[in-house]
Amino acid sequence: RKAFSFGSNRELMAIEKLLGIQQVNISHCQQDPCDMESCFNQIQAGLQTYSGYLTYIHQILTTYADKVLSVQLDISNLSRNIQQQMEENSLTSVVYPQAENEPRFVEVQREIGSYLVLCRLQKFMDMIFRALRHCST
User: Less Cβ around it within 10 Å: N or C end of the chain?
Assistant: First the structure.
């Protein structure tokens, strides 16, 4: 956020809604007991969503291209690891069609839209961490 000059959190939330940035759901991961199969499928769907966004953001934020690429690789590795866990535990994997996750930001919205997607991704990764910890107990 320091690299960009954006408004208040309220303004950012309004812009996020205006741009149609997808919210990712992992409600199955918060159930007690954890429904691991549904949880993993929701995580996979979310990772796929953000993977699509990151491909687009990589082209927009050329100054940060190396960092975005690193995040893309981390997401890909996490997705592969979750898929492997699902296979090892004989869980059914739901394969979602490749979504068109390329946001349609106009020129002035590109940086702020990218920033908002990256903020959402960070929150999603925190939720995944908590969900996996919850499901492992």
Answer: C
